[in-house]
Write a structure and sequence with these properties.
Layout: H1 4-7, H2 9-29, E1 42-48, H3 54-69, E2 75-83, E3 86-93, H4 99-117, E4 128-132, E5 139-145, H5 153-168, E6 173-179, E7 184-190, H6 192-197, H7 202-211, E8 220-222, E9 227-229, H8 239-243, E10 246-248, E11 255-257, H9 258-261, E12 262-268, E13 275-278, E14 281-290, H10 296-312, E15 318-325, H11 326-356, H12 358-382, H13 388-396, H14 398-401, H15 403-417, H16 422-453, H17 456-498, H18 508-511, H19 516-531, H20 533-550, E16 556-557, E17 566-572, H21 579-593, E18 599-606, E19 627-634, H22 640-653, E20 658-663, E21 674-679, H23 683-698, E22 703-708, E23 713-721, H24 723-728, H25 733-745, E24 747-754, E25 757-765, H26 767-770, H27 773-777, E26 780-781, E27 799-800, E28 805-813, E29 815-819, E30 822-831, H28 837-850, E31 860-865, H29 866-878, H30 881-896, H31 899-923, E32 927-928, H32 929-955, H33 957-960, H34 964-987, H35 990-995, H36 1001-1030
Helix pairs in contact: 2-12, 3-4, 11-12, 11-13, 11-34, 12-15, 12-17, 13-17, 15-16, 15-17, 15-34, 16-17, 16-30, 16-32, 19-34, 20-31, 20-36, 30-31, 31-32, 31-36, 32-34, 32-36, 34-36
């Protein structure tokens, strides 16, 4: 069976062709993404209560909803933000929640929200649950108004809806979301004095408008032959129809037209809840999600065609363009990864020619693409898409792909050179190597399986890397034992016996590089070390021990910034800032940014977070009139020098604003790199503690901005009522508040339908009156229970607000944050680009200790930000260690049939970890999550050579007995393929070190450096350990 492919040449060729076809077809059909998709475990609950301050929102809305959420066991965290007029609660589910059962949990949460709705005060909106997709939009296209006149959002909205419908009709489109379009409405602007003279309130006027709008069924006319629908012609379908609504204002049957007592116009909600500034112009954006199993680049081509066709139909002054296209990034990344793959493959092939000769290099070089094709085929079978993690997994595994083939080829060729027939040579080699190769492959797979066992976002982010690497080493083993052995047998059978036998001297490209001086020196070193095994063990442990000592001094970093030609930008003004002021400031920031030739454009989304143009961005703000978020499109990859330069300019130009310019981050998202949560019951005390901690954070070098959630006070107009006057006016507090709410914010009175859009009709005073304090205090309020004037035609017993109350300014917290049902002050620090958050956090903690910062009883703190995320990821990763260790030990015990040999491999594994740490320290890389992943993977790779060497010792009778000379001969015989596999593995990481940005080098250095050191461990430390164990209690031989 071991020589099946050697004996049947046609089967060998057919197998190769099938693998090639399988791989190529899989490559062109696999879904393509820029980054891995994460399971949606996040959602936000938004509830509106116009006119209520933050504390009332917290007490009467947020707390009641939180009480219901606390009953859901699958919720990991819920953080709430209560501010004037609205409550937002962000939910995060447990990492153990899988995609298959997430929908069930969201349904249970909706049921809880329905229960909470009955407990909320009158006037609040129904809590809206919105799941947050943890992936980037495939495309963002924008429609802009480029005329000199005010933008007509009715036209923009209708065109956006038409384009949305066309994009939804494309195959592969999952969802289309609209951004930057203010809600339209019909404003009925009243004059309160005139209305009061008719004996009407705003509520009564709204009710009469509502009565003229009956969008209800009127039954059917049913005859023996026909059924006809009956419809009352009562829909409000135009502005004229609304203006002509008859308004009754006395018991004598007197009427007036609505248009005679109010100004009726179509407008947007004033002030608008959100705006989009595309290339500096007002407009709207459509963001599109694509189905996960669909190729984004193919979808993008059809979307671009549809957009181009739609663009040609637009009128003058309107512009449609694509402001973000994920397909471009996918294509660029795929090309870069494939180029790296080719570069690595060529380097590995050349190294194999140098070390083993061209015949072996042909087999090894053929095994490389075949293994990749097999991996692509299995990825298609397992539904693993092509993205940066899965493709980089192939690059990382490139050197490993041929390790097994190198060992098999080397062993078969040695047997054939020794005079064995091809079949015998193959059989002998496979029988000798099957168990150690299988064991080393399984331990390598187990080393990378930790990525698959990590729950939550880190595991989902890295799983593609782990899967592709595990598939790679398994493919390598299968190919080496089947096609590889058969192919090298054929080559040597044809070339060696018919050609080489006539030549006694061969060049290095035929047999591989050899040097008698190096060989002699190597033999002397082995003889010296083996004569004193303790010395060999000591020398072998120096570097690992150094690594373990120095790892404590390494700075920590969760994930480095992404290498991307985009920057994220945020703008936040004081809590009282109007959306118009925020918009104007955003435009000023844009003008400043565009002075830099590195910046191509800045797109702003005012009043809310921007569409998710990168997979780990979080929508943290919505709605906020003082907030804007956007992205800077650059002409080249962003670097820390440019970011710091831009940050310094906006800080100088806009001292009254907080403008944050940041590089995009890899890995799971967090709001700020450095953060602390202080918990406690009293808001004033929390504010004081937050100010203390924040003042110390400001002193830390390289901190650019700080903020805390209780740091801003929002002035509020408070009406101090004269209770006696209120009672004499036949009013109470509730009715007075309701009348003011109706007059200033409006009361809904039906709706009109335009095409498929339903526009609400809102009755309120004009914007001029709402913005004039004197006019507000002069508003006339009607007595409780008043209706149509029964006595007089021209006046009613109204009372101006100024006669009932005095107005004063009262300071209130603009935002109240809670975390898992407890009040919290979140202190955040933003740092200069290129600075490690761990260094800043260390400096902040040192200042807190030096200042004797202490919390009173009932208050406590937690470190948040990057440090918290890194700690959580480390904990779940380390939790997988015991299981992986037990499985790997079991594999080794069964394959080596020796507990002593397994213990020696255990020493090698621990040494490999130390060597990985040593490599990171030597080359100056921080200790982050990718470094940790690289170190875990290194363990599985590093023990491979040791397993092969130890297996060879155990199979040699004299070496097994502890004979030093025999052990030396066994080690000498294993050296070529050990060195070859080490160098090819290290060479495979060169592209990642050169073109891997800042994300991949820590992993590459940890593995490559560790593998290099592990070669010395395999050739020196392992034999020394075995000699000590075998000769324990005996003298020297």
């Amino acid at each position: 069976m071991t020589t099946l492919f050697y004996r049947n040449f046609r089967l060998l060729i057919l197998a190769i062709l099938i693998i090639v076809a399988w791989g190529i077809s899989s490559f062109f059909t696999l879904p393509r993404l820029e980054d891995p998709e994460l399971v949606s475990r996040f959602a936000s609950i938004t509830t509106f209560w116009p006119g209520a301050d933050a504390q009332r929102v917290e007490t009467l809305i947020t707390e009641k909803i939180e009480a219901e959420l606390s009953e859901i066991e699958e919720i990991k965290n819920y953080d709430s933000t209560s501010r004037a007029g609205n409550s937002i609660i962000n939910i995060e589910l447990l990492e153990s929640v899988k995609e298959i059962n997430a929908d069930t949990i969201w349904l249970r949460i909706k049921e809880r929200l329905n229960q909470a709705t009955t407990q909320l005060p009158a006037g609040t909106s129904k809590p809206r649950l919105e799941e947050v997709e943890v992936k980037a939009y495939a495309m963002i296209t924008a429609l802009t108004w480029e005329q000199d006149t005010e933008p007509n959002y009715a036209i923009i909205n209708r065109l956006s809806q038409l384009l949305k419908d066309e994009l939804l009709a494309l195959p592969g489109t999952q969802k289309v979301a609209k951004f930057g379009i203010p809600q339209e409405e019909i404003a009925v602007e009243i004059n309160p004095t005139q209305l009061a003279s008719l004996g009407l309130t705003a509520q009564q006027l709204s009710a009469q408008i509502q009565q003229s709008d009956a969008k209800v069924s009127s039954g059917q006319f049913r005859s023996p032959n026909n059924d006809l629908l009956l419809e009352v012609d009562s829909n409000l379908d135009s502005l004229n129809r609304i203006r002509n609504i008859p308004i009754s204002f006395s018991d004598r049957g007197q009427f007036t037209r609505l248009g005679d007592i109010a100004k009726v116009r179509k407008t947007i909600t004033e002030p608008p809840n959100e705006l989009a500034l595309i290339n500096g112009h007002p407009g709207s954006a459509l963001a599109i999600f694509v189905e996960s199993d669909y190729q984004i680049d193919l979808w993008a081509k059809s979307a671009e065609s549809a957009i181009e066709k739609f663009r040609k139909e637009l009128g003058i002054g309107l512009k449609l363009e694509i402001i973000f296209n994920q397909s471009n990034y996918i294509q660029t990344r795929l090309k870069s990864m494939i180029l790296n793959l080719l570069m690595s493959g060529i380097l590995v092939f050349l190294m194999t020619v140098f070390l083993m000769g061209w015949k072996s290099a042909i087999v090894v070089g053929l095994a490389l693409p075949l293994s990749i094709f097999m991996v692509l085929g299995m990825m298609r079978f397992l539904n693993v898409p092509l993205h940066q993690m899965s493709i980089t997994g192939l690059i990382v595994a490139l050197g490993l792909l041929i390790d097994a083939t190198i060992i098999v080829v080397d062993e078969v060729s040695k047997n054939m050179i020794s005079g064995f027939p091809a079949e015998t040579a193959i059989t002998k080699a496979i029988n000798h190597l099957f168990l150690p190769l299988t064991a080393s492959t399984l331990t390598t797979a187990l080393g990378f399986s930790s990525m698959l066992l990590i729950p939550g976002e880190p595991g989902e982010f890295l799983s593609g890397l782990g899967i592709s690497m595990i598939l790679a080493v398994i493919s390598s083993l299968l190919l080496s034992l089947t096609i590889g052995s058969g192919l090298i047998g054929k080559l040597y059978d044809i070339y060696y016996h018919h050609h080489d036998s006539q030549n006694t001297q061969q060049n290095f490209w035929q047999t591989g590089f050899t040097n008698s001086y190096l060989t002699q020196f190597y033999q002397v070193s082995l003889r010296s070390i083996f004569s004193n095994p303790w010395l060999g063990i000591l020398l072998g442990l120096i570097l690992p021990i150094t690594g373990f000592i120095q790892v404590r001094n390494l700075p920590e970093q969760f994930f480095p910034p992404a290498s991307r030609n985009q920057l994220q930008i945020e703008l936040e003004l004081s809590a009282l800032t109007s959306i118009e002021k925020t918009k104007n400031t955003a435009l000023e920031v844009r003008n400043l940014m565009l002075k830099h030739p590195e910046i191509q454009e800045l797109q702003w989304f005012v009043g809310r977070s921007s569409p998710r143009y990168y997979y780990n961005l979080r929508a943290t703000k919505q709605p906020d009139s003082n907030y804007a978020q956007g992205f800077l499109q650059l002409n080249s990859i962003a670097n820390s020098e440019l970011v710091n330069k831009l940050q310094g300019e906006v800080d100088t130009a806009f001292p009254e604003a907080q403008v944050l310019i940041r590089q995009l981050e890899q890995g799971p998202p967090f709001d700020a790199p450095v953060a602390m949560r202080i918990y406690g019951p009293n808001l004033k005390r929390l504010q004081e503690l937050g100010e203390q901690a924040r003042s110390l954070l400001v002193q830390v070098p390289k901190v650019t901005h700080t903020r805390d959630t209780l740091g801003e006070i929002r002035p509020q107009l408070q009406l101090q009522l004269n209770e006696e006057e209120v009672r004499l006016a036949q009013l109470d507090r509730a009715n007075l508040s309701q009348q003011l709410e109706t007059l200033l914010e409006g009361n809904l009175g039906g709706s009109i339908i335009e095409d498929t859009e339903e526009l609400p009709v809102r009755v309120r005073v004009s914007n001029a009156q709402r913005g004039d304090f004197n006019q507000i205090t002069s508003l006339d309020l009607q007595p409780l229970g008043s209706s149509l004037n029964q006595n007089r035609f021209s006046s009613t017993d109204t009372t101006p607000l100024s006669a009932l109350a005095k107005v004063k300014l009262k300071p209130e917290f603009s935002v109240i944050r809670r975390s898992n049902g407890r009040r919290v002050n979140l202190i955040q620090g933003f740092i200069a680009a290129g600075v490690l958050p761990s260094e800043v956090l260390k400096g902040w903690q040192q200042r807190l200790n030096d200042s004797n910062f202490e919390l009173p009883s009932g208050y406590w703190l937690e470190i948040a930000g990057e440090s918290e995320k890194l700690g959580e990821a480390k904990a779940v990763l380390l939790a997988t260690v015991p299981l992986i260790f037990l499985l790997a030990a079991s594999v080794l015990v069964l394959s080596l049939n020796s507990f002593r040999a397994t213990a020696i491999i255990g020493i090698v594994a621990i040494s490999a970890i130390g060597l990985g740490f040593f490599s990171l320290w030597l080359f100056g890389y921080p200790f982050g999550f990718m470094s940790l992943i690289g170190t875990f993977g290194l363990v599985g790779i590093a023990i491979n050579d040791s397993v092969v060497v130890l297996a060879a010792i155990l199979q040699d009778p004299e070496a097994y007995a502890g004979n030093r000379r025999a052990t030396r001969q066994v080690v000498m015989g294993s050296t070529r393929h050990v060195v070859a596999t080490t160098l090819t593995t290290m060479i495979g990481f060169v592209p990642l070190l050169i073109k891997g940005g800042s994300f991949w080098p820590p992993l590459a250095v940890a593995i490559a450096g560790g593998v290099g050191g592990s070669t010395l461990v395999a050739l020196y430390l392992v034999p020394c350990c075995y000699l000590l164990v075998a000769n324990f209690g005996r003298g020297k031989e």
